[in-house]
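WARN retry 2 of 3 for item q-0093 after timeout on previous attempt; input resubmitted unchanged.
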Amino acid sequence: MGTLYQEELETPAILQDLKITYHDSSLIFPSKETEKRIMFLSNIDKILNFNVQTVHFFPRNSKFPPEAVTQRLKDALSRVLVHYDFLAGRLRTNPETGRMEINCNAGGAGFVVASTEFALDEIGDLVYPNPVFQDFAVQSLKGSKAEDQPLCIVQVTSFKCGGFVLGFSTNHCLFDGLSFKHFLENLASQAYADDKLPLPIIPCNNRALLAARSPPRVTFPHPELLPLPLPAGDEACPSVFDCSPQDLDAKVLRLSSDDIAHLKIMAKMGPNRGTSKITGFNVVTAHIWRCKALSCSETVENPSRISTVLYAVDIRSRLRPPLPISYSGNAVLSAYAMASCTDLESGPFSRIVEMVTEGAARITDEYAWSVIDWGETYMGFPNGEFLVSSWWRLGFQEVEYPWGKPKYSCPIVYHRKDIILLFPDINDGVNAVNVLVALPKDEMKKFQALFYKFLN
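OK item q-0093 returned
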């Protein structure tokens, strides 16, 4: 059932040099004066101090050549910054508390204009993540000091065919996936000619809504979190996503809509099928978890070892009272599921799906506040064997710009053994899912074999 993406071709040939020329870089400022203020960052925001790059590819539109798109985006960004003043701010450490915060000083967001010698259809497979795509979304502006680097940089790179790619580099402390989607929708709305159009979604920028309780109360055990000993007042922690380079084999494995439907049928079989709704995400995560745990080299030496999978859960609707859906910060926590590799191998698939479901259900209002308060008490990060990071249903490719919807939207990813990425298919969208896995070659061979074996 499952099919290796471009199965007949192995890993697709990818460009090593995009032959990009950078023409201009500048700062875009809010179109109206904004209040100078200091933005509090929640304990969820604080641990996400690293850049996220995304690219959004657009085919040629004769009514909107790249030059016209560039000017419209500059104007749109300037208008949007009035509502997202923190995007034009700068990170700083509070000298009294040592806490990271944003100085909303209207310092500006970055804007880069570039071109490549290639046409859009010459740069290769858009679905297979090419690390060189990072050149479509630069992470810093030349000439700016480290402390004055923009937290958000927008880049327009034109292709020789008249198409272009829109790249974003944003510090993760600014947005989670949903709030970034809302930002894109707002930016797209302001790119129309009428500058009086209201924003479709007014962002809620009050990060204090997720401030820890006083005093903090950690009311649950949190095996999904790992405290790190740090000097008092030192919040310059290495990101949980930092890693040393590894020699990994990367594959994109595709699950079609039929594959996902088949996994749902298997999840309904057996004594542990449970009564909860069986979702596409839960069955895909359970399938990946079993394959990843059993392909790990440590499992050969210790078949009964405990495997822990992490995956993000949006807490906006889980809090009491709920957060506004337009909350602009990070409102996701890492759910977890734990099981022995023996149980993952021999137990029914329905039970594995149920454990993933239970992991998400565990995050109630009180549990979420316990995690937030844990972050106030300890400095630490999510702790698990690996993380399933899903961009599958975020809907970036559904954002409607004046020049149309993107042909494809995806994050720029670096191959990591401990992160497995889900993203939509270029043809079937959210009906199918592409799974990016990077593992040592021996583990990858076993992972692939299990991936197909467990689909039958």
